[in-house]
Amino acid sequence: MIPTISDVSTVEEWRSVARDIVKRDSKVNWQATIVDWPGLGYSDRPKMDYDANVMEKFLVDFVNSPDSPLRNSDDLVVFGGGHAATILARAAKKGLVKPRAFAAVAPTWAGPLPIVFGRDSNMETRYGLLRGTMRAPAVGWMMYNMLVSNEKSIQSQYKSHVYSDPENVTPSIVKSRYALTKRTGARYVPAAFLTGLLDPVKSREEFLGLFAGLEGKFPVIVVSSEGAPKRSKAEMEALRGARGVTKFIEVKGALLPQEEYPSVVAEELYRFLQESFES
Asked: Residue 32: which domain range?
């Protein structure tokens, strides 16, 4: 299970879903492994040039390494949220990872700024300036604290588009995510994510092409969310009936349905596992 890439990405978003699935009485003895992205969550956060290629390589190495916790997994299934789903699809299309099944939960491919302001040469120049400023000493921390690392900003994001129901955004969630933004090196990945460097594709056509490239390889479920922001929702909807998508469903939630409504998402994913492995 791979977390959605965001300023406050963390393995915590998948824990309840994982517990739900592994505790069920099943013909298959499911085990769950949840891993944080480099530079996010509880992982180390070295200063490096993060981009989609770095994240893809991490995922590929994690799955295929001889000392990986997944090394003995003959029935590897990958659940990915947001950008994680699209990065996995890109790696799988290349044949770099070979799961037996794949779930894309509220999949996205465009970072917060590109999805709103686009990617023309003028905007790319501005993104580069913003990214460089956020990575710089002193002034970078000031900008990061203003844009990302403050409880008011985190609460506002969660209430406006991360969760669908503002009442579900509790003080404990905000505080735990805020703590992640104070870890050493915390600003480097958000600087890349906000400005589109972690985007695995540059267009809807490429996005659909990734899933089309999975056709016939393994079952793929897309879990769309009812309350996703308009632009993100449009990209999820583009996968309805698309090539390579075995099953398309919609659940409650916005950009983190697996965290906001874990029992609903767990039920749908478990049903998908049953259909894929127990039928």
From this structure: 11-278
